[in-house]
Amino acid sequence: MASQREDHAGRKAASAPFPFARMERKRYALDRLDLQLRWGRYGIRVLRCHLASFGPGQVISAHKHSEYEFHFIPRGKGSVTIGGVYYELREGLFYLTGPDVVHEQRSDECDPMYELCLHCEIVPLDEAPAEGWGDSLELREARDCVQLLETMPSVPAWDRYHAMGCFLEAYRAWEEQAVGFYTTMKQTIVQILLRAARVHASPEACGNIPERDMNDHRFRLAAQFIEDNEAGPITLEEVAERVQVSPRQLQRIFRSEGGTTFSDWVEHVRLQRIADELLRSQRPIEAIALDHGYATPNYLYPVFKRKFGMTPAAYRRLHGVRQPAGGDSPDEALSSG
């Protein structure tokens, strides 16, 4: 009776949907890829990345590697003996055998075991990548992950962070050969390492993304909005709404971060754009003024002279730009008045 129940259980498991059935088509396809990638200050060389199946009662005799080998059990049962200690294996568990860890695997007689295997070499690199655009965070996270892998126990644990799904994602990337194949493969390999290490990480080991100085951040957002929209009407209330603060608070931010008022900053941006265009084109000054937020061109002349110490026409002459015909008269009339 017991043998009949075991036989029924084996047939039931074999007929159940298998999420990794797709990988059975070419189980060792990824092993043929020469995958080498950099993560932080480490080089990762993938030696094997495949779906393996064991026959009923099959034994892989005691052995060890000089690299890291991740073993995930997506189906079936079995056991592993690590350093002389016996552990049962079942679907959903994984374990890591690090360098020189002796292990022996055995598949169940009635419910043979499948294994997703990632076997990789992790090599410290002397040359450090340039830090910027988040590189310092990646350097830290890679270091923390590798330190966890070096110290985590060789004890089966539940795949709580679903690292197994990354194997299927890598296999699909190989099948499709779409744009970004290498980047996808790098991300899946790194995710397997991270999700495995995370199972044994303490809450204190979690890194945090540095928090922004919100005044500085809002000032930069507001200043960029002004740069992008200086040609049209811009109000303090509109920009405050864009950066999600009150108008009064935004005015304080401009004083503390920019050392000036909001209106003076808008005027500064517009005058810089006008001065640049005066030197790059021979368009009439009145047209340039209209294109940069001065609804009445005559408003431009006094503010321009206050900032640059001369009229727009004199600014052009100083830099050797030829004036368009009839383009000086309003400017010169105001400057002489």
UniProtKB/TrEMBL annotation:
GO molecular function: DNA-binding transcription factor activity; sequence-specific DNA binding
Organism superkingdom: Bacteria
HTH araC/xylS-type domain location: 220-318
InterPro entries: AraC-bd (IPR003313), AraC_XylS_family_regulators (IPR050204), Homeodomain-like_sf (IPR009057), HTH_AraC (IPR018060), HTH_AraC-typ_CS (IPR018062), RmlC-like_jellyroll (IPR014710), RmlC_Cupin_sf (IPR011051)
Keywords, alphabetical: DNA-binding, Transcription, Transcription regulation
SMART domains for the chain: HTH_ARAC
Protein name, entry field: AraC family transcriptional regulator
Source organism of the structure: Cohnella lubricantis
